[in-house]
Amino acid sequence: MSSPIEIDYYTDVLCVWAWIAQRRIDELCQDYGDQIKLNYHYLPLFSDTVTRLQNQWAHRGHYEGFADHVQAAIEPYDFAPVNDKVWRAVRPTTSSAAHLILKATQLAYDEATSAKLALRLRQAFFVEAQDISKRGVNMAIAQAMGIDVQALQARYEDGTALAALMADHSKAQAQNVKGSPSWVMNEGRQVIYGNVGYRVLHANVEELLRSPENEASWC
Parallel, antiparallel, or unpaired for β 190-193 and 36-42? Predict the structure, then answer.
């Protein structure tokens, strides 16, 4: 059996477009199973939401304007609901707290467990309007999933979770990732960014499955 196609998948957990893209990730995994391997990476787009919203949305209604934008974004997608309180009453200060616990989970467990926690954190924010910039909230969510929070705490204290998160940021720069969500395939030769349809992802994966490895690049 040939090795699976590796896909570097970059998101920010507070990004509504990544929340919408979750359906496409689910479809990819359902359609291709062990033929693909998703590597989950996290971007610091909302690492400082106060400054981000001030710089980009102060003249467009600030938090209320951004909340309206999010509601407009999800309107065509009934599979990606967003609570009306999101960005109006519930305003996370950073996505980095969520990203850090996800890297700790990757280290203490594996990619699959971390991916399940990432989905649960997104649900907690977008659907339940929980503030996932709070470490205690994130730890409680992880614990409710049966994750050993002491194992995660060890990855905080020895610095490995933070180092892994910084490695994600460096890799994103090296691969010229522009935003969330982004899929990087074929050793960086194929980069797909933004709110793309499932057929685009499907076509790229199919091409990689059909094409021999020695035809990947030309002089």
Answer: unpaired
